[in-house]
Design goal:
A hairpin with a 5-residue loop joins strand 1 and strand 2. The longest helix is centred in the middle third of the chain and has 21 residues. The chain has a 4-stranded antiparallel β-sheet. It is α+β, with helices and mostly antiparallel strands and about 180 residues long.
Length: about 180
Amino acid sequence: MKNFARLALASCLLVALTGCAAEQPSAPRADAAPKIFGPDGREAKLVVNWEQSALPQRDWAPWLAYLLGRIEYRSKKNIAETYYGPQPAEFEEEVWARDTATQVYVELRQKDRDLGVPYFDDLVRVRAAGFLREYVWIYLNRSGWRDPGGLRIKEFEAWQRVNLVGHRAVTYGSISLERQ
C-alpha cells in the first residue's frame, strides 16, 4: 500500500507539472484525509509554501513530493498541530518525506535519463545503502527530536566519508498550518 500511495503521489506531481488535468474533479472519497484542527479547535489546513524561483524547474517535482509527503505523513498519523504557522518536521515525518521525494526522483530519472539533481543523486545512494534514517538524523537533526533508537551511526559515518564527500543537506519549501 505504501508504494501505491507514493506512485499515486508521483503521478499527481507529473500531471501537475506537465500541465495536464482531468476533465472534472472527482467527488471526495469516503476515505479522504481527516479534517485538521488548529490549536484553538477551529478547522485549519496545511499549506505548501513554495517559491518557484528558488530552483530550476527540473528540481521542482522531488521537492514538491517532499512537501506533499510531509502533509501525507501528518494526515496519516493525525499529528496534533500545536500552533499556527510554519511546521517543523518530526524525525519520522522527515524520513518519510525524503524517502517519498527520492522515490519520485527515481521514477522521473527512469523517464528522463538526462535529469540530474545532485542532491537527489546523493539521496538515491543513501537510500540504496539503507541509511536514510541515519542520514536524516545526522544531517537534518532538530533539537526537539528524540533518539529513535536502532540507528547505525558508526556504519553510516564510515559510509558517508567515502560516498557523500562534499555533500550538503538542503531543504526547499515548507509547510504551515493556516486558519480556514
